[in-house]
Write a structure and sequence with these properties.
By secondary structure, the protein is mainly alpha-helical. The chain folds into 2 domains: 1-42 and 291-475, no CATH class; 56-278, no CATH class. The chain contains 20 helices and no strands. Helix 10 packs antiparallel against helix 11 (217-242) and helix 17 (391-406) packs parallel to helix 20. The longest helix has 39 residues, at 66-104.
């Protein structure tokens, strides 16, 4: 351990230099990552609560489990929710990058243009998804094999989420404006507020409590978009009142083609990266529904549960990015290496907990989503136990992707993501489904993760050889 990592945090030199370069690494990772981890945990929790309530829906007109159909419906809407998030997040990242650079250069005119053009692009995106939700929601659910109740519920859910997407697009852009000026606490408050409102409204609107009508799956969608709209309104207020560097004024606004191009030059790669998961989920739903509707419900439940272990890991990694980038620029190799090692240790811890829970108590986890249909347990227990094995490799792959992005090699992350989810996972799932149905298809996840692990080992070797090992060590 270097002397600087043993230094007392009250040392005046710590306060003379940015904490990224002097604070003990473990403390720094916790200091920066913990708020993001907590925010991600809240997001994961409300996603799970959403599905827990949906799974308990009853429908007197159905001879089958309405809860299972509801889970299938939400699962079939999920790829398009992911696509919506990808567009919003990509636009936000592009705005954040341009705006932060302009702030550093004291170019306040570009700061204003970046903010206002970002808001304009978010409005345009919301209009596009409104049209998709209004006219194509049923077609998109049916294209994955949705029929009967799953088609009815899925169409309702996807229509509402897309037609009211202005909430999440505005939430994304206002949070990025706060983050670009370093006001991450306000950004976290908006996220957590939206999530809490969603959790509170879910049972009220799904089951019709306190005089509200029983909306079933549509109620879950209304709760979701209401939380997003409230978070967006809070984000707007905080930007207007607490973010003086940003000027939001659309009076007389005209889109600036040059600024928009600069936003999307950075934002589109992020959109593509996040859209890969959308394509993978869509394809998996089509494969699974051909085997058994309950398999789609199992896949949906798995996605919800795994977020409990992966979302905190993503929060940790969001904190690792500025630490690595700063110390790379400051030529402090030992701090970079230590940050990577500590982050990997934490990541393995999160993944190990997920592995153990999936292996030891899969039935208990599935019972949280009590649909009243025994098939969820029958098909879900072996599925979770098989999928669990990919946790033992995923932690390394996730941290590796963060390292590549931090050091300016985001293309490595894109290659790994495309290879894992599209080149290996989907073909493997298709082949295994043909060979052994539900008994084999879940092995596609460990197989894809093993490939990802091998490729990540190669890329980490190259990053260490070509970049990290050549960084100076100014302690």
């Amino acid at each position: 351990m270097s002397d600087i990592d043993n230094r007392n945090e009250n040392d005046p030199q710590i306060h003379a230099e940015n904490k990224m370069g002097v604070m003990p690494i473990n403390k720094l990772i916790i200091n920066i990552g913990l708020p993001m981890i907590l925010s991600m945990l809240v997001q994961a929790f409300y996603n799970i609560v959403d599905s827990i309530f949906v799974a308990r829906i009853k429908d007197a007109g159905s001879v089958n489990s309405a809860g299972t159909a509801a889970l299938v419906a939400v699962g079939m809407a999920f790829p398009f929710q992911m696509l919506l998030v990808a567009v919003g997040a990509g636009t936000g990242v592009g705005v954040n990058s341009l705006l932060s650079k302009a702030l550093g250069e004291k170019d306040m005119e570009t700061v204003k243009k970046a903010a206002n053009n970002g808001i304009f692009l978010s409005i345009v995106s919301a209009v596009v998804f409104f049209i998709i939700g209004r006219f194509f929601a049923g077609t998109l659910i049916h294209s994955q094999g949705g029929e009967g109740l799953s088609l009815k519920y899925g169409t309702q859910y996807l229509s509402i989420v897309c037609m009211c997407s202005f909430g999440i697009f505005m939430q994304f852009i206002f949070e990025r404006l706060l983050q670009s000026t370093g006001r991450t606490l306000y950004s976290m408050i908006t996220q957590m507020t939206g999530a809490v409102i969603n959790i509170i409204l879910d049972p009220i609107l799904i089951f019709g409590m306190f005089g509200f009508p029983e909306l079933k799956v549509a109620g879950a969608a209304v709760a979701t978009v209401t939380g997003q709209i409230v978070a967006a309104c809070m984000g707007l207020y905080l930007n207007l009142k607490k973010n003086p560097e940003i000027t939001i004024d659309l009076r007389g606004f005209k889109p600036d083609g040059h600024v928009i191009r600069r936003i999307y030059m950075v934002g589109i790669p992020t959109m593509i990266m996040q859209s890969i998961g959308s394509v993978m989920t869509y394809c998996m739903n089509k494969i699974l529904v051909s085997l058994n509707d309950a398999a789609v419900a199992v896949f949906t439940v798995y996605f919800k549960l795994q977020s409990l272990f992966f979302m905190p890991l993503f929060g940790l990694n969001n904190g690792l990015i500025p630490i690595l980038a700063y110390n790379y620029g400051a030529q402090k190799r030992s701090r970079m290496v230590k940050a990577i090692k500590i982050s990997m240790a934490y990541a393995f811890g999160f993944a190990a907990i997920g592995f153990l829970m999936f292996e030891v108590i899969p039935d208990k986890l599935l019972l949280i989503f009590n649909t009243g249909d025994s098939s969820l347990i029958t098909y879900g227990v072996p599925a979770l136990r098989i999928i669990a094995w990919h946790y033992l490799l995923a932690w390394f792959c996730i941290v590796g992707g963060t390292v590549y992005q931090s050091l300016g090699n985001g293309v490595y992350s894109l290659i790994v993501s495309v290879a894992r989810q599209l080149v290996v996972l989907i073909p493997a799932a298709y082949i295994l489904a043909k060979l052994g149905g539900l008994d084999l298809i879940w092995w596609s996840f460990p197989v894809a993760e093993l490939m990802s692990f091998v490729v990540n080992c190669f890329f980490m070797y190259r990053i260490n050889k070509n970049i990290i090992s050549k960084v100076g060590d100014n302690v």
